[in-house]
Hints:
Oligomer: single chain
Strand order of the largest sheet: 2-3-4-1-5
Number of strands: 7
Order of helices and strands: EHEHHEHEHEHEHHEHHHHHHHH
Strand content: 5-15%
Largest sheet: 5 strands, parallel
Distance between the termini: 45 Å
Number of helices: 16
Shape: globular
Amino acid sequence: xxxxxxxxxxxxxxxxxxxxxxxxxxxxxxxxxxxxxxxxxxxxxxxxxxxxxxxxxxxxxxxxxxxxxxxxxxxxxxxxxxxxxxxxxxxxxxxxxxxxxxxxxxxxxxxxxxxxxxxxxxxxxxxxxxxxxxxxxxxxxxxxxxxxxxxxxxxxxxxxxxxxxxxxxxxxxxxxxxxxxxxxxxxxxxxxxxxxxxxxxxxxxxxxxxxxxxxxxxxxxxxxxxxxxxxxxxxxxxxxxxxxxxxxxxxxxxxxxxxxxxxxxxxxxxxxxxxxxxxxxxxxxxxxxxxxxxxxxxxxxxxxxxxxxxxxxxxxxxxxxxxx
Length: 324
């Protein structure tokens, strides 16, 4: 069972992965192997495909993130013929006991994968390909309505518009806000007043200033901006989501820079403005990839512990800021 998931909406890709994994394992213990082509290459991924003795269950799921050799836009990351043929041979077996998922983000110029890829052709024929293009503004309004309807809530048009203005088109941020909003509404009818009372205001320059100050390890400025944002009602979970998104970008920028990419090539690869890349690299001069990864791990743990109710959200986030 082979799948390719590609596109710009990482939140929807993650949802689809979770749905595929849940359906595949049903009630069995999950045996999942994850790898990242950008950092790990393909050797371990191929070894996982070749291994037939499963440790925890009769099934296993193998996920390859950043499988950019399937991407038309990132063709410079293509694999050599020997590796391609070996991988193709393993995928042709189409073992029902193995779920294989390839993921590539922001993958295409024209809405298609690398058309001449034999792997893409094979999965088109014997597997399934899911596309997750960026949601346009009008479609996002419809998405908000359908999301709440799916959860048994009505939402009026003014509330939809305000929520869209608050979160832009960030599905991660929208999901956080929706999860906060729904328990608050008693009659399952969401109004503009409900959104105003519970949901955060739009991310503005102060949010970017917080990220930049954190990157610069300017503790005094970090806490000044943080205090301004809390006065305006911004929740720590929103700040965590924003910082996480930025530090994922920093991780990619630094990795590509250390791999010899020019600023222009990084900007093209990550669909960023060259000036934004230049500013980010200036702030990343005193960081290593391990340090960025450590910050991301702390953000993930912080987000999890707050959502599980294990810690006070304000105290925990302020303690994290002291990590500088």
